Amino acid sequence: MRSDALLNEAVRGPSGPRKHRMLPSWVATTALLLPTYAWLTLAVLLPLLTMFVFSFMSATPMGKAPITFTLKHYRAFVDQPYLLNIGWTSLVIGFWTTLLCAIFGFLAAVALARATVGRMRETLLILILLPFWTNGLVRVFSWTMVLRENGFLDNVLHMVFADAGSISFLYTRYAIVLGLVHGYLPYMILTCYIALVTIDDAIIEAAASLGARWWTILFRILIPMAAPGLISGAVLTFVPVIGSFMEPRILGGKVGVTMGTVIEDQFTQAFNWPLGAALSFTLLAVVLAIFATFSGVLRRGAAA
Amino acid sequence: MNNITRRNTLQLISAGLIAGAGYSMLPRKAAAAGSITVLNWQGYGTDEAWSIKAFQESTGIEVVHDYYSSEAEMLTKLRTNPGAYDLVVLNAARCAQAMAEDLIAPIDYSKVPNISSVAENLRSNENFNKDGVGYAVPWVWGLTALAMREGLPKADSYAVLGDAAYKGRVALQDDAVGVIAAAALLTGQDMNNPKDLDLVKETLKGFKPNVKLLWSTEDQWNKSFAAKEFDVAMYWSGGSVRSKRVSKLPVDFVVPKEGGIGWVDGLGVPASAPNMEGALAFANWMIDPKFYVEWATKAGAPASSNVAAMESLPADDLSRQIHKPEYIATMSIMSALPDDRREAFNNLWQEVKAFYAE
């Protein structure tokens, strides 16, 4: 998020006075942005707006049923209190996924940025991205092969300890978080990596020569300076994770009931688009509220 | 040089396109006098190439297909394209809706001689009839009931889903209509309109200690069953035939005393059909035992509504063994749900799922 400001500065270089400008700068900016924003309006904003309108309708506007406007779908959390539990579950899953992604992603990025050079670094980056390019569904289903009873994990365990019981944890919350961490880790690694490579080696050398131990360097220098990457990675992970439905459904079995699966059910099974849309916008509001609450922390982190 | 090649290529491509377009239009125009357009799921019986070829040879009518990928889409296509279709495959639950919107026409049964051996129960089903007039030819049927691992005592009631002997060994279908139907039948209610939804909810919640898995696709069912993750499950009759025949899984299909949860697909003629005669001739062909036996044994099919067709299957045919004729009388058939009831069903199931997940 904020890292692109950094990037722009790096690309543009120090902005000096430019001569012979033909047009005021805003014209050029507008002209350059117009295609993008026109496309975004057409492809994202308008459909989103339609969904927003849908969320106030009494029924899906396809078919003969008369449509009236109503607010009842936004009362879903009051009428169906079990939704509160589901929402809370989703937030908890989102929290753990983001936390684990942050820890593993940051460490991986540090290793990538600090311990490797040249060809080796490129290869490792590609190795991290490679699974990311395969279909998400395939990756999630391959986890079921690993985690299920008598699956890959159990087989490996039984090769070592023949009499051990099953350590299968498919169809639990742990499996969901594992699948989600696997799915979103590359975002975190990449954002952290971009933030970390901009840190000057000289700073770390200086710290080391002044006697700083590795944990001092990590907590006093690397983490604060890479905070923009960590924060944008966290946002990129948290937001999609609380709306995810594929991983909970496949890896969670009967415990895989999250806001994402509830919304998906409304669209695919119940054919109740208005309720699905209303739940999505409620979720969006909750996410915005969370970010608003922590905006102070986020801004400080991003500015660091 | 470069330029010329490019121009040549362009010319070649456009010539090819024109020729292709002309070619594809020619035969259709020639046969337009006797053709029908069928609206169906892809790969679901009506579009078997050998059957269409034989049908054209014997009647001179060409069969063209268009497909839908959901029943809601099917209705939308009928509403927005009057005159485009001659025959449509619709589920009993959707048929009532299509009748109410005057999308399909009454059937002239004298043009469908094979109807004489179609099960009376299916013919007179309220979803296919309005004021004593039939609006669709019942075509194929199947049911959802229980599947159990071979060797276990065969359950005689849906109560097995809550039986403590199967703690953590049960799989339910992740489908609001299906699970509510099972719980409604178990509590002695009308599965299409249960009066006591709270009782249904409590019954479903009572299955919690047993429920290991909620399945939604046949593939998922087969994989989990093969991995011995569950022993008892709600399952489709047709699915159990495929699991046994294709995946060689040790499955017994059991229809409990409360009856199966049945579905019937019918063949309807859109009110705006340009070629009703041809459509009815094809509908007659579709319920003909000769076509059915070939379809069932070559490709695999649900049960035919035509009793004579089922009887002409080989006696040891799995599909024939599982789809016993008496089920037609004992099963309840899924019918259309009004919007508010559908919403209530879905909310109920969502709440039960949240309870299972706790």
What is the count of DSSP helices of chain A, taking H or I runs of 4+ residues?
A: 15
Largest sheet features of chain A: none
Name the largest protein-protein interface in this structure. A-B, 32 and 29 residues
What is the overall number of helices of chain B?
15
Class by helix and strand content of chain A? mainly alpha
How many beta-strand elements of chain B? 14
Q: Mean pLDDT of chain B, as a whole number?
A: 88
Strand content of chain A: under 5%
What does the overall shape of chain A look like? globular
| Helix/strand order of chain A, N-terminal first | HHHHHHHHHHHHHHH
Helix content of chain A: over 70%
Largest sheet of chain B: 12 strands, mixed
Work out the strand percent of chain B: 15-25%
Structure notes:
The complex is a heterodimer of chains A (304) and B (358). Helices cover 74% and strands 0% of the residues of chain A. Chain A has 304 residues and is mainly alpha-helical. Chain B is of the alpha/beta class and 358 residues long. The longest helix of chain B has 30 residues, at 2-31. In chain B, α6 packs across α15 and α7 packs parallel to α15. In chain B, strands 1, 2, 3, 4, 7, 8, 9, 10, 11, 12, 13 and 14 form a twelve-stranded mixed beta sheet that branches. In chain B, strands 5-6 form a two-stranded antiparallel ribbon. Chain A binds chain B through residues 59, 62-65, 80, 82-83, 85-86, 89, 144, 148-151, 171, 249, 252-257, 262, 265-266, 269-272, 275, and chain B through 72, 75-76, 101, 175-176, 211-214, 216, 223-224, 227-229, 339, 342-343, 346-347, 350-351, 353-358.
